């Protein structure tokens, strides 16, 4: 079939608006944080001046795919490529956007602590601890999308290497443990954590680095940065 | 904010095509099957006469939401409402549909063995065993969507009550075990299966029914039909 010679009929229906939103997580000051952007105040914009997740319309001329669109939004807001970007789900209905029937494809991204991130607190972007962000009245259905993302991340932390994507490399095992604890919201036993991480064999040693309090410690990085490792079992309570 | 008084600016971008596709599973003749529909042969239709997953454009005038659209497609093709319908993911890019930039929201549905289903094999719809369906060259990226759905279903079977949604109620424990075995693709130990199902406490007894070979057996139904029960652990190998 040569599509260049064929004229395809297309839909007579009005097309929905199509957007991509990205829930961008990091850890700052031992808190799981999410990037919010303030919507423009101008007339004719829905939810003016309200905080929202970064996102916007798919641009059919620029975006080769939904994932490429999510990567573009992420790069525009943070200046970085995410080491981890996963599709979260989609939300679409007649009422979520006052401009008309709209569907959004939501992604979530994990990026290392934003020393290297352009978006520090400004008037239009802000890293907000997740529990605070969840209490704000965000634009559209972004509260629902955010809470779904937090739930997904927390559930995956139980059995994957995901939190390692929140750290700049190399990291030490105590630094990795703290990130797990921050995302899980509870302390973990040090020796069980160390055994579990090393047994899972998803880290590789990169030599001694300066760890906490200036002490030398083994530095690690992820063996494979293109996927999360799934552990054979979840953390037991008290482990 | 009264949206009726405000004129919202909308996008100047060309809007992508938006579709919903539904992977509808059932079990027939001890095989996991999926419903395929044959695309029209007429000129101007992409992938003419090719088999595809049921689906089509979101109709902004009829569909209140993506889920409502999925329910409508399912009802149109099978005449039934699905006891279980879950969002699978979305696929969108510039090339998957020759009519233009398109994104589809894919769902998967589980329905009981289709005694009561309108769609038996016709020239335009057919229940196809999943392994055979996977070998056909389906329209669009439907092979990818189908394989993702099979993988999701199989992974969830390990730790949820999902296969029970593939049975008409009431069902016996041997019937339920067979559906688990069909989806998992391997036999399960009878006494371990019985203990596990009853321990999970997601079934309720409805009294004696006529089971296999005309023998009386306890009939069961799902305690809650609106959600899958998640078991505390997966099936062990050999269990």
TrEMBL record, chains A, B:
SUPFAM superfamilies: Nudix, Winged helix' DNA-binding domain. Keywords: Hydrolase. Residues 15-153 form the Nudix hydrolase domain. GO terms for molecular function: hydrolase activity. PROSITE patterns: NUDIX. PANTHER family: ADP-RIBOSE PYROPHOSPHATASE, SLR1690 PROTEIN. This is NUDIX hydrolase. It holds the Pfam family WHD_NrtR. Gene3D superfamilies: Nucleoside Triphosphate Pyrophosphohydrolase, Winged helix-like DNA-binding domain superfamily/Winged helix DNA-binding domain. Transmembrane segments: none annotated.
């Amino acid at each position: 079939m040569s599509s260049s010679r064929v004229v395809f009929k297309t839909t007579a229906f009005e097309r929905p608006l199509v957007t991509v939103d990205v829930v961008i997580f990091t850890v700052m000051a031992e808190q799981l944080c999410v990037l919010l952007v303030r919507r423009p105040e101008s007339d004719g914009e829905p939810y003016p001046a309200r905080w929202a997740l970064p996102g916007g319309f798919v641009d059919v001329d620029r975006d080769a795919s939904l994932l490429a669109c999510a990567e573009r939004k992420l790069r525009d807001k943070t200046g970085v490529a995410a080491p981890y970007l996963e599709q979260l789900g989609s939300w679409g209905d007649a009422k979520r956007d006052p401009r008309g029937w709209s569907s959004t494809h939501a992604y979530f991204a994990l990026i290392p602590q934003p020393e290297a991130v352009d978006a520090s607190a400004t008037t239009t972007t802000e890293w907000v601890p997740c529990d605070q962000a969840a209490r704000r009245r965000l634009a559209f259905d972004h509260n629902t999308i955010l809470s779904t993302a937090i739930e997904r991340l927390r559930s995956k932390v139980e059995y994957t290497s995901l939190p390692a994507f929140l750290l700049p490399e190399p990291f030490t095992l105590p630094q990795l443990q703290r990130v797990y604890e921050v995302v899980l919201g509870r302390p973990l036993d040090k020796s069980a954590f160390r055994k579990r991480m090393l047994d899972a064999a998803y880290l590789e040693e990169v030599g001694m680095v300066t760890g906490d309090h200036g002490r030398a410690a083994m530095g690690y990085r992820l063996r494979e940065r293109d996927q999360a490792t799934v552990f054979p079992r979840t953390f037991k309570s008290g482990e």
